[in-house]
Amino acid sequence: MIPEIWRLLDLGFAEPYTAQAFYEAVAKTVAYKDSPNTIILLNPSAPSVCIGFHQELEREIDVEFCRKAGLPIIRRGQGGGATYLDSSQVFYQVVASEGSETIPAGVEAIFKKILQVPVNVYRTLGLPAEYKSLNDVVVEGNRKISGNGAGRLDGAIVLVGNIILDLDYDMIGNVLKVPSEKFRDKLAKSMREWVTSLNLELGRAPTPDEAKSLLVQEFEKVLNIRLVKGEASEEEKRVFRDEGLPRHRELEGLRKVKISGDARLAEADHKVGKMIRVTLEIVKNTLKDVLISGDFFMVPEDKLPLLEENLRGAAADYPEIYRRVRKFYEDNKVETPGVTVDDLSTTIMKALK
Hints:
alpha+beta, three-stranded mixed β-sheet, 14 strands, globular
């Protein structure tokens, strides 16, 4: 089979907003056939904090610490959890048209195929890494060494992830929201048991350029493509500059459920591989308002408010809630890898009880 020709776009050391959002401008132009399928490689030029598309800011991040430390907080275009990013991580960002023969159709299949790339990179460097469903690369079964997100943007398929050269565990502990300072100290210590890096595992790490060279080699092999180095187009720069991508520019605070005099508030968390959080306003055994958040993936990502809207007015019983959630999935052709209709319905019922 003749390899597809893709563009390689190396952005070098990119400022945090470019690192987190430029690929969306590329996705828009790829979707409209103005740009070729593209692999973007980069390092953040400065530290930042990034949260998943469906997460609640104040629940996940110590906003005051970030403000004092001068750390920008950016909401990315995919799901997943909150994380601290700096120049000791090499980002890869895959952007392809939905018609590409080398990219699978479903999100789970996309993760499984493309994450063989970082797995192979780590193995080449001497680390016995493995793919762990849904979206992680791990060492010895449980220590995460690459976080990844995938979805669809404007008709293009995207996957973003990282090769972790080194980690600042103390800074990670500082930016995450915790119930107490005692818990923060415990978090920083225990984090070494479930998130790791090349430097921690091997006592050394490649340079960013060496890591990028290995990524290029493995992307070409795994995806059966040939990468040709190119530059960002003027149209991509214009889209990035002029069309705003507002979800990154203005990171909103916690969206709240307002409680009226005759209502009660109910909340629940439910971990099913991914975290689901639900806040409900209940009036006379009816869901008046619903807020769903968490570190799960939903494709398309922007459909979650529609699910919340569809649940308003539902009777507070499982059959009615399940029916509405299932109808939402069927009508909107939504994927939530690792999270089912029953998981969402069960979380709502857990809050009600």
